[in-house]
Structures are given as C-alpha cells and as structure tokens.
Design brief:
Elements (H helix, E strand, L loop, with lengths): L2 H5 L2 H13 L7 E4 L14 E7 L8 E7 L22 E13 L14 H16 L8 E2 L4 H6 L9 E6 L6 E3 L2 E11 L1 H9 L2 H8 L20 H4 L3 H12 L5 E3 L2 E4 L11 E2 L2 E6 L1 H13 L6 E5 L5 E5 L16 E4 L3 E5 L2 H11 L13 E6 L5 E6 L12
Parallel strand pairs: 4-8, 9-13, 12-18, 14-16
Antiparallel strand pairs: 1-2, 2-3, 3-4, 5-6, 6-8, 7-8, 10-12, 11-15, 13-14, 15-16, 17-18
Helix pairs in contact: 5-6
Pfam family, one: SUFU
GO cellular component, one term: cytoplasm
Protein name: Suppressor of fused homolog
Length: 403
C-alpha cells in the first residue's frame, strides 16, 4: 500500500478505532452509506452513518447509537475538506466534529437490521447539508430550535413532543487527534419546547445535567425517547424553581446561540477587513430568535454581559453592555455600532436602550404563532444612531436549510 493511499483513510480509520473501543463486539456495524459520495457529486454530505446497538446502563435504557462520518476530514487529500498546515497547534480536522444521536430502543424490538429506524440518518444528513452550506461549526452548548421539522422526520403525523435539539459532548466517544487535526463527538439530545426555553434562559449544560439524573430523560448516556410524554420539570418537581433561582442569582450562562437572524447596513463592503462605525443597522429575527433577545436583555445585558447570535447565513450579531469585558469588543459609548464587512456586527446597548427594547418588545414573549408578523421596532441611540429590529416569519429566511 502506498503512502498516499494509506493517508487517504486516516480520518475514517480514527473514527472506526474510537468506536471499536466502546463496541469491540460490533466491528462491522450497520451503516447507512451515501449511494453517490459527496465528493463524487452526490447530494448527501456524509459518507457514512454507523449504527451501533448499545445495551444502556443502570440509568440509561437500551438504544441505537448513530455516529456520523464526514463532518471531519476522512481522507486528508482535499477531496472534501481543505487540509490546513500541520504546524498549526489548533488544527481541526474538517469542521472539527462528528455528530452522534442515541435513540431509545423499545423493549420488544430486536437487533435485526430491519428494525433499525432510519429517520435519524435523514436528520443527520439534513444537518450536514446546513453545515456544508454555511460553514457553521456546532459546539457543545448550542441548541437547534427545529419546530415542526424534527417531528415530521420522526413520523408522518408528527406525533411526538420532542421538537428541538440540544448539543453536548458524547458521554462515551472521546475526542481524538490525527495529523489532520482534532475531532470531537457532539451528541444531539431531543427535548421539549419548554426544556429548550429553559436552556435559552440559563444554559444548555444545566438542562443536560437535569436530563442525566433521570432514566426517563435519558440518564447518564442522554438517550432520546421520542415517545416521552413528561418534561424534565414534571419528572423533577423542583427543577424549574432551582433553574429560576440560579438565573436570578447568576444570570444566564448562555452566551451564544444559532438562530434565524440577519443584519444589514448601507454602504457596507464585503471586502472590509477592519471594523468601522455605522450610524444605522437593520436587524431581522424570526419569532423564536426575538424571544431569545428579550430574555437576554434581562439575563445577560442588564448584568453587564454580552451575547452573540450566529445566523444561518454565516453572520453574527454581538450585543454588548457597558460593563462587558472581552478582548474582541470594538464598540464604545461614542461608536455604538461597529461592523466587520458583512459578517460581524457589534452593538453596544446602554442601560436606557436596554429598558427601551424591553418596554417596546416584551409583549412578543406571549405570542404563540406567527400570524401577527411582521413587526418592526426602531430603537434610537445617541448622536443620530439607531437600531431597527424586524420580526418576520421563519419561512421568510430563504437561506434556512433547517426549514
């Protein structure tokens, strides 16, 4: 075997070896493979999804364990992912992660190939298309508000209360490094809408910790049960009170989310390589993102912190309070809006502007659907500077591959 052909499997082999440490008796697991690989012109971005049978443990039920192959660099020869300099100590392989998902296996179901649900493979390929299109990297602590998409992938009638996803580190598969860079395994964990809302107010890690304490919510391995009918706040009666007390005491620890949002400003060049001040910026949110904005005004910005929205078209909106302290902050009381090309916008909100946003927009927290949209708000700043916020239907985000 030549050196070149040896190298072309280094990333793939590393994932296989990592999985074999957990499943030494399943060296040839069931695989959902792309018929035509992405690098040969196929539409599915992931080469493979391996499906393992996990017996669970004392806190987690038996389940199928889905593991992706393709977010990271499998081959190291530029066929999918550009290979960076190996001298970089922070080098990541491809996007730097693979996704996993653990789905509860009903007791009456056997281990036969015919009984393995394939809809999670569609889910993982769905997310892969989004990542490959936008270049977005998922991280532990992110969440994905899926709305109707996840239930419809699960069944034709959408009969489940699991609508959204939280992202954490897989509890068994450990990160590794090859000469192509580092790779971590990020696990998708299904959740109810009220569990997602709680994660948005505090942080994902706190809700994940609650899930791990009960077998009904997945236990230590965080197994998703699509038939679950009780939320973690029903299962653990004092959980909601403890969460609220922690938020009131410490504020939200959630500093960044992926959301349907965008920003636009006149006379901004995509080629700008330095931050520059502007006097007006137009922000667009869907209803879910707007509700998060209202929450972080209270739980983050009023407490002297910052918050970042990452958009589905590779933009970011960073809201900053006067007392926030971060090396990358470019705004100040004289220049409250700064932008870097068309990618990053930083907006400093002073206390009176935080109060104004809250007063004018707090009513949207009670909106249950998008029938009253669009909505528009203008928030004046000092020195003829202003921020305009529009709230539109999620379907109007035409770059949204999640929909």
């Amino acid at each position: 075997m030549t050196e070149a052909s040896n190298r072309s499997y280094v990333g793939l082999d590393a994932i296989v070896q990592t999985c074999s440490k957990i499943y030494p008796d399943q060296l040839n697991p069931t695989q959902a493979a792309s018929v035509v690989k992405y690098w040969l012109g196929g539409s599915e971005c992931l080469d493979y999804i391996s499906i393992y049978h996990n017996q669970g443990n004392e806190t987690s039920p038996a389940h199928w364990h889905y593991v992706t192959f393709g977010f990271s660099d499998l081959h190291g020869d530029n066929r999918v992912h550009k290979v960076s300099s190996k001298d970089d100590p922070n080098l990541i392989s491809g996007y730097g992660f693979e996704l996993t998902f653990r789905l509860r296996k009903p007791a009456e179901i056997s281990n036969s190939v015919q009984d393995i649900p394939l809809w999670p493979c569609k889910l993982l390929q769905y997310l892969a298309k989004y990542v490959f299109k936008t270049g977005t990297q998922f991280h532990a602590g992110h969440h994905i508000p899926f709305g109707h998409v996840l239930p419809n992938l699960y069944s034709s009638n959408g009969d489940t209360r699991i609508h959204d996803l939280l992202i954490t580190n897989d509890r068994q598969l450990k990160s590794f490094r090859t000469n192509l860079g580092s790779v971590e395994f990020l696990q998708l964990v299904g959740c109810f809408e009220n569990e997602l809302e709680a994660a948005q107010e505090c942080n994902v890690a706190q809700i994940i910790d609650l899930f791990s304490t009960s077998r009904k919510t997945g236990g230590s391995l965080l197994v998703t049960d699509m038939t679950r009918q009780e939320s973690v706040f029903d299962i653990i009666p004092n959980a909601k009170q403890l969460t609220r007390e922690k938020i009131e005491k410490e504020g939200s620890q959630l500093g960044r989310v992926l959301a349907r949002c965008a920003w636009n400003a006149e006379s901004v060049s995509a080629n700008d390589t330095n931050f520059r001040p502007i006097s007006s910026i137009d922000l667009t949110f869907d209803l879910d993102a707007a509700k998060i904005f209202i929450k972080i005004l209270r739980t983050r910005l009023r407490r002297g912190k910052w918050f970042i929205f990452d958009s589905l078209n590779d933009q970011s909106i960073c809201f900053i309070s006067m007392d926030a302290n971060n090396q990358g902050i470019m705004v100040n009381s004289n220049q409250q809006i700064m932008v870097l090309g068309i990618r990053e916008a930083q907006i400093l909100l002073l206390p009176d502007q935080i109060d104004l946003c809250t007063d004018r927009m707090s009513h949207i927290t009670n909106l249950k659907d998008e029938h009253t949209l669009p909505l528009k708000y203008e928030i004046p700043f000092h020195k003829n500077t202003k921020m305009i916020i529009s709230i539109i239907s999620s379907k109007e985000f035409n770059n949204d591959t999640i929909e």
